[in-house]
Design goal:
mainly alpha, MetI-like fold
């Protein structure tokens, strides 16, 4: 069937349905979003007032920077816990690897409400962590583990860890073990082998996973609402408030466009970094 279509209409004939669907589900909504952002309060004339408000309003800019900081914290936490886990999975046997993979992926198969409620029970003032520490005599009063940046980072890291572990694990599997063995045979210590061979050759996976985690965290909404309360405000929360309580759709659209532009810039930079790393690997003797 597709051969007949290819002969009759060429490659464009095969691509037409996918392009049409892509235009309907992506470009059309994006066009409406941009158009709404250029009409403040339903005004007929085009205006950049909403974008000007984004850059001149100190509160909005502060919330945007706070969102970026949150994304950086989550990305760093995923790197700290995810890379060693991916390294363990690479060196583990098939059974243990499957167990680790199941543990990593399981949060993605659980409702976001269930996950966050579970963390409320674990990190609350009378939760599991504070109870254990108090019974052990390590603390006198409950630690503030919820309704702050720490609580949000824990909740988001729990689910987005898989988006870093899987790319890094894939990159580690692509490394030829003989390369590490050759370095060891030349007298390199295990740490030197990791620093000079394993880590550089897995950087493409690190960049891809870190980018995924950062981008997803920039748009996360429900976890900061539940685990941060009113003490941790992110840009998606501001946009939701503009739509639901202030009915300012045009300003919310402008903020969404700015967030999309920022994320696109991150993706472009990440793609270029990955290509540069691949070029450097190709130039290695």
């Amino acid at each position: 069937m597709w051969l007949v279509c290819l002969k009759r209409y060429g490659w464009w004939g095969l691509l037409a349905p996918a392009l049409l669907l892509y235009a309907l589900v992506f470009f059309l909504p994006l066009s409406v979003l941009v158009a709404d952002s250029l009409h403040p309060s339903g005004a007929a004339d085009l205006s950049l007032a909403n974008y000007n408000a984004f850059f001149t309003d100190g509160i909005t800019l502060s919330i945007f920077l706070r969102t970026v900081r949150l994304a950086l914290f989550v990305t760093l936490a995923c790197l700290v816990f995810g890379y060693p886990l991916a390294l363990f999975m690479r060196r583990a046997g098939p059974a243990m690897r499957m167990v680790a993979l199941t543990i990593v992926v399981s949060p993605l198969l659980t409702s976001v409400i269930v996950r966050n409620v579970a963390w409320l029970l674990v990190l609350g003032r009378e939760g599991m962590v504070n109870t254990l520490l108090r019974n052990a005599g390590l603390i006198d009063g409950p630690l503030p583990l919820l309704y702050n940046t720490f609580g949000v980072v824990v909740g988001v890291t729990h689910v987005y860890l898989a988006f870093l572990v899987l790319p890094v694990f894939s990159a580690l599997l692509a490394i030829d073990p003989s390369t590490e063995q050759a370095a060891s045979s030349l007298g390199a210590s295990r740490f030197t082998v990791f620093r000079r061979v394993t880590l550089p050759m897995s950087m493409a996976g690190v960049i891809a996973g870190s980018t995924l985690v950062f981008v997803l965290t920039m748009g996360v909404y429900l976890t900061p609402v539940i685990m941060g309360g009113s003490f941790v405000t992110t840009l998606p929360m501001v946009m939701t408030d503009l739509v639901r309580t202030q009915f300012d759709f045009s300003r919310a659209a402008a903020f969404a466009v700015m967030l999309l532009v920022f994320i696109t810039a991150i993706l472009i930079a990440s793609s270029r970094a990955e290509k540069r790393i691949e070029q450097m690997r190709g130039e290695m003797p």
